């Protein structure tokens, strides 16, 4: 098992124990140290207490198991932010009912030549999603999606 997989498994257990989802794990170098960045999410949004709890518990596990092999590292735990592209089915499911922007490889059936669908994420299946675009449900196969993310609107 590689380092990212090992950390992801530990981080997922810690996150799930607090009703959170593990969204992503990144490791990169910053000078002499490694930075381990863990992104967590939940439907209602992540708060500072969620990040602090995951950081504390995950840091303890990483150090106890010497996962970073005595290398200096910085652990950062945060929300991925509203405008981060969806990567997993959990990302889509977490954003059900929200206004989203979806760009596709080719035009979506019933939308003419459009490759951009904006509307409410109405349903998430195993192989497709449904967007309510101006009152009309549009089914989009996941394999056609180039990028999907929340369309942040300030009112």
Explain what the structure shows.
It contains 3 helices and 8 strands. With 155 residues, the chain is of the alpha+beta class. It folds into 2 domains: 76 residues, GMP Synthetase, Chain A, domain 3; 62 residues, SH3 type barrels (Roll). The protein has a 5-stranded antiparallel sheet with strand order 7-6-5-4-8. A hairpin with a 2-residue loop joins strand 6 and strand 7. Helix 1 packs across helix 2. The radius of gyration is 18 Å and the shape is elongated. It starts with a helix and ends in a 5-residue tail after the last strand. The mean pLDDT is 91.
Any chance you could write out the topology, listing elements then pairs?
Layout: H1 3-17, E1 21-30, E2 33-41, H2 48-64, E3 73-78, H3 89-94, E4 99-104, E5 116-124, E6 128-133, E7 136-141, E8 145-150
Parallel strand pairs: 2-3
Antiparallel strand pairs: 1-2, 4-5, 4-8, 5-6, 6-7
Helix pairs in contact: 1-2
């Amino acid at each position: 098992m590689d380092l990212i997989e090992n950390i992801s498994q530990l981080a997922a257990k810690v996150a799930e124990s607090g009703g959170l989802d593990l969204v992503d794990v990144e490791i990169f170098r910053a000078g002499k140290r490694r930075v381990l960045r863990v992104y967590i999410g939940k439907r209602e949004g992540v708060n500072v207490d969620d990040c602090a709890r995951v950081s504390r518990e995950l840091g303890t596990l990483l150090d106890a198991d010497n996962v970073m092999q005595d290398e200096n590292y910085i652990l950062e735990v945060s929300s991925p932010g509203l405008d981060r592209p969806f990567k997993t089915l959990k990302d889509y499911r977490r954003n059900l009912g929200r206004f989203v922007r979806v760009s596709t490889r080719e035009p979506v059936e019933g939308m003419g030549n459009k490759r951009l669908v904006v509307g409410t994420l109405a349903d998430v299946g195993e192989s497709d999603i449904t967007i309510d675009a101006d009152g009309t449900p549009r089914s989009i196969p996941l394999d056609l999606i180039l990028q999907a993310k929340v369309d942040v609107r300030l009112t």
